Amino acid sequence: MSSTQQTPQRVALVTGAAQGIGLATAIELLQDGRKVVLTDLRLPDLSALPESLRANAFAQLLDVSDPAACQKLVAAIREQHGSLDILVNNAGISLKNAAGQSNGILDVGLDEVQKMLDINVIAMLRLCQLVLPGMKDKRWGRIVNVSSLAGRGKSIVAGPAYMLTKSAVLGLSRSIASEMGEFGITTNCVAPGRILTQMAMQAGEEVNQRYAQQIPVKRIGEPAEVGAAIRYLCSEAAGFTNGAVIDVNGGFLMG
């Protein structure tokens, strides 16, 4: 690229962005000069962003399991901003039982599995299908799907339903990466380990402390550390990183 050419301002959609990894990712992308649409089941509070970044941030309600709402939002973003160049599929759920734990293989219900599939996988696939045609037309796009350490190997606290869905995210992402790479569209995953989010706090402080002792860096991760990895995958420089998984887990998973 010559010095007289300027990279256009890319437009990003981040799901599950009211808090945690999604909010941290939005901040990272805004710092990288992107316009960012933050979505969640509750309206993201833009006052949580540094004031200097708010001019390029836009908050929208979105239930990712609602096909009509997803279609309407993607169309609205394209109409308002001219394009939708970056998709970060972060929204996800991990259902717990009355004791605050994940149901094991003999106790998990198919309705529970289906609900997690609908949010963690099917909604992700739907949003990818909605944004890919526009990316293909522009011959540029970045998709980052948030998987989990639970989809990469044995999990200490996640149950079979969550592990199943987060493993499926990896397969879905590889499929898109292989089919869409020739059009300048990269599709990658981050697989966070134990991160200080509301979801992780469901297990309780004692569980997290025990977990931290099994991590080589001896601590739980911060949302911003995952956001930084996603920022790279969404960057102009990441055009040759495709179908990859970045493990952000303090060294818990090696090999």
UniProtKB/TrEMBL annotation:
<keyword id="KW-0560">Oxidoreductase</keyword>
<dbReference type="GO" id="GO:0018454">
    <property type="term" value="F:acetoacetyl-CoA reductase activity"/>
</dbReference>
<protein>
    <submittedName>
        <fullName>3-oxoacyl-ACP reductase</fullName>
        <ecNumber>1.1.1.36</ecNumber>
    </submittedName>
</protein>
<dbReference type="Pfam" id="PF13561">
    <property type="entry name" value="adh_short_C2"/>
</dbReference>
<comment type="similarity">
    <text>Belongs to the short-chain dehydrogenases/reductases (SDR) family.</text>
</comment>
<dbReference type="InterPro" id="IPR036291">
    <property type="entry name" value="NAD(P)-bd_dom_sf"/>
</dbReference>
<dbReference type="InterPro" id="IPR002347">
    <property type="entry name" value="SDR_fam"/>
</dbReference>
